[in-house]
Amino acid sequence: MSGGLLRSSVIIVVILSSACSNFMERSTPSEPSSRELTADGVQQEADRTRELPARANRVDGHARTRVNPTLKVPATGAAQGPDASSPLLTDIPASAESVNLLNGRDLAELIEVNEPVRASLREWLTWMRPFLLDTWENYQYMRYKMWPAYATAGLPEALLFGILAKESGGKVHAVSSSGAAGPLQFMPATGQRYGLEVRDGFDLRYDPASATQANVAYLNDQFARLNNDLALVLGAYNGGEGRMGRLSPQGTHRFWDRRVFDQLPAETRSYVPMVLAAAWLFMHPEQYGLRFPKIDVRPGEIRLRADLSLNELSICLGQVGNDRGWFRTLRNLNPRWDPNTRLPAGTRVEVPASAASRYAEQCNGAAVVTWLHAMQDASLPTPLPAAAVRPARVRTHTVLRGETLSKIARKHGCTVKLIAQANRIAAPRYPIRIGQRLQLSSCHA
Q1: Mean pLDDT within 218-225
Q2: Which of 67, 92, 167, 266 has its CA 20 to 30 A from that of 13?
Q3: Can you tell me the mean pLDDT for 322-333?
Q4: For the ranges 76-80, 262-266, 360-364, the one whose mean pLDDT is highest
């Protein structure tokens, strides 16, 4: 009896030890190693662009790397949701239970933190950290326009943030070299398929709310086509649904399968792990020493009391409530307007509530408006046409028989001394010879 109990205890201990080990390898952030794959991002600096090595045992599953002792290791179950200290949890309506769920499953369970994703985590946490923080700030001010579409569709907010970070950094007017535009970077044809048309002269791809609704519709269509495989859907979003459908019909092959992964463009091979890594950091910032700032994002509006452009308004608002100034936020919240165009008095402008109070205090009065208009209307000197700045043709004179330097000087409205100096002719006799070519650049005839 005791022997059987001892053997049972040993078996239980071994099983628990193995389970804990597998959990740590699955969900614990690990120290980057020289064996890790490197993500080359389409928005990365050219001298940092690198290719993901094609090693099957480094893509098709988790590489076994040791735990970094400097990072906070999550307790059992911590990887199943966002950190308790994440600012995300302090600003979520109680009804928005889908904030971290995808088709009813925890997004943290669906993101495979394999070697490409770890390499992407490294990129976001090093030289791209400022870009990630900019994305956070831009998104927070637009959140009331973008998040409702995801909440209604039951899609996780972390996924929205990941896509936004990789696509545009939360800059509404971003345009790629291939023609993709807006915060979520729709191509013109795809945008039109999902309702992002040009309406009253305004391209709806630049509207945060409309773009997010189209993004949700596109993702749901791809989830249905690709067997609800998140990585495949993201690959379709970046690399084209046709290509992804051919490589993985009805989602039969996973994104990390060499039959799929190796046939994708380098941009897509980088895009998917970068999006997944950004989403992972959105859910687990504290584990990686990432601190998203607390921002007063209460929406507000102002009615212009005088004709002002967004440029002039951002100058007047200064940095009160936002250390980086309000220009980017004004552009994102009011995408229809060119920042240089002066809007008529009475125009409604969307601004954060903290900026609205500043407008009432500082941006009114004839003197302020005149000062702002003077800066808006100022311009740099207009360059002269190329013909006007072309160097003047150098004047010359070829010495003829019987000519003297004084005779030549009188003919060209110059002095003997100036011609002699320009041509290194010695005084007092000023000797010249027939056929000699004299420079007359100092003469004004």
Answers
A1: 96
A2: 67
A3: 95
A4: 262-266
Residue type for position 109? E
- The answer to whether 425 and 419 are in contact (CB under 8 A) is yes
Pairwise CA distance, residues 152 & 213, whole Å: 10
DSSP annotation string for 309-344: -HHHHHHHHTTTT-TT-SHHHHHHH-TTS-TTSPBP
**Confidence check: pLDDT of 51 > 80:** no
* Residue 94 and residue 191 in one domain: yes
Using omega within 30 degrees of 0 as the cis cutoff, is the peptide bond preceding 428 cis?
A: yes
Q: What is the DSSP letter of 116?
A: H
* 3-class secondary structure, 355: helix
- For residue 121, what is the domain's CATH number? 1.10.530.10
pLDDT score of 279:
96
At residue 421, the pLDDT reads: 87
Structural domain contains residue 69: no
Q: Six-digit token pair at 15?
A: 């099983």
CB 262 within 8 A of CB 65: no
Beta carbons of 162 and 296 less than 8 angstroms apart: no
pLDDT confidence of 387, banded at 50, 70, 90? low
Residue with tokens 């637009």: 142
Q: Is 354 helix (H, G, I), strand (E, B) or coil?
A: helix
197 assigned to some structural domain: yes
- Output the CA torsion 10→12→18→20 (10° steps): -130
- Is residue 359 within 8 A of residue 317, CB to CB? The reply is yes
Q: Using alpha carbons only, how large is the chain's radius of gyration in Å?
A: 33
Are 177 and 324 contained in the same domain?
A: no
Compute the distance between CA of residue 403 and CA of residue 160 in angstroms, rounded to an integer. 87
Cα atoms in the Cβ-side hemisphere of radius 13 Å centred on 77? 1
CA distance 160 to 99: 10
11 φ/ψ angles, rounded to the nearest 5 degrees: -60, -45
157 near 100, Cβ under 8 Å?
yes
Show the tokens assigned to 361: 């205090």
- Give a yes or no: residue 309 inside a domain: yes
State which of 3-17, 104-118, 276-290, 399-413 shows the largest mean pLDDT: 276-290
The owner of tokens 């002792």 is: 69
CB 151 within 8 A of CB 98: yes
At 103-128, the pLDDT tens digits run 667 888 889 899 999 999 999 999 99
Residue 72 clears pLDDT 80, i.e. is over it: no
For residue 422, give its domain range. 396-439
Q: Is 94 exposed, middle or buried (0-12, 13-18, 19+ CB in 10 A)?
A: exposed
